[in-house]
Specification:
- By secondary structure, this protein is an alpha+beta fold.
- It has a single domain, classed as Aldehyde Oxidoreductase, domain 3 (Alpha-Beta Complex).
- The chain contains four helices and eight strands; from the N terminus they run βαββαβββαββα.
- The strands form two sheets. A four-stranded mixed beta sheet has the order 1-4-6-2, with helices on both faces. It has a four-stranded antiparallel beta sheet with strand order 5-3-7-8.
- Strand 7 and strand 8 form a beta hairpin.
- Helix 2 runs antiparallel to helix 3.
- It is globular.
């Protein structure tokens, strides 16, 4: 299991290939990459993501460990970026490996739902005109957690 909280971009292809090669005993690997998208209200120029390093790393490691145990994963990977990102940038990646595809898919969805709703990151959208707003939690993201 590997959890990385980093400012630098990551190479999705290289990460997925290395993860898959190391997925000994797995019959399924699921990968997902989240991208920074435009703000719903208008032209976002930049998204700033802040976090408390020790707290964030520990929280993500705990949820990855929980997913690994709950779905008997053979491996898990979580990468989440912080800092200044622009629309189209990769913001996060989740990869899960399990003996069976259902476990790999469910664990990946669980990790993604957690990252969206509970991971200790604070996001600020900065529009092209300089206006800035913190991103508020969405009810739909909170509701997604109820299935777990």
């Amino acid at each position: 299991m590997r959890v990385a909280v980093q400012e630098a971009p990551f190479d999705f292809g290289a990460e997925a290939e290395a993860f898959t090669k190391g997925a000994n005993g797995a019959g399924a690997v699921v990968t997902f990459t989240g991208l920074v998208r435009e703000a719903e209200a208008g032209a976002m120029a930049v998204m700033e993501i802040e976090h408390y390093p020790g707290m964030t790393q520990k929280a993500l490691e705990q949820i990855a460990t929980e997913a690994t145990t709950r779905w008997s994963l053979t491996d898990a990977l979580v990468i989440h970026r912080y800092g200044r990102l622009v629309p189209g940038d990769q913001i996060m990646m989740v990869a899960t490996a399990a003996r069976h595809r259902v476990a790999a898919f469910e664990a990946a969805e669980y990790l993604m739902d957690y990252l969206k709703s509970r991971a200790p990151f604070w996001k600020k959208e900065i529009l092209a005109d300089g206006a800035a707003d913190w991103v508020a939690a969405k009810d739909a993201d909170e509701e997604a957690l109820t299935r777990w």
